[in-house]
Specification:
The protein is an all-beta fold. The protein is built from no helices and eight strands. The chain has a single domain, classed as Calycin beta-barrel core domain (Lipocalin), CATH 2.40.128.20. The protein has strands at about 5-15, 25-35, 40-45, 50-60, 65-70, 80-85, 90-95, 100-105. Strands 1-2-3-4-5-6-7-8 form an eight-stranded antiparallel β-barrel.
Length: about 110
Amino acid sequence: MVVDGIYDQIDYVFYEEVNLSVLVPSRQAMRFSSGGKTVDIARQSATGGRLDVTLKVDTEGTRLALTVVCPEGLAGAVEESRYTAVGEDLWVFLEQLGSTAVIHYAQR
């Protein structure tokens, strides 16, 4: 379970070679609430685009399942990944572009 609080993205690393030209650099912050069962994500891309979403959080062991609640047009979409939370740090492991990406967040 992830502890309630605000987490800032501090690192995003791929562990295999990938074509980074298809990615738009972005930064994001997440606010976990309701005992780690809800997360609001604010993502700002380097090109100026912004995405704000609210997700329902389901964790079991190291599995992290996020189901979109809002915005309505994305509601119901699910993204599953693995995670580790230790103290004030959160690491999310995503299978992306044929590689494993590790996103490190630190709690404010």
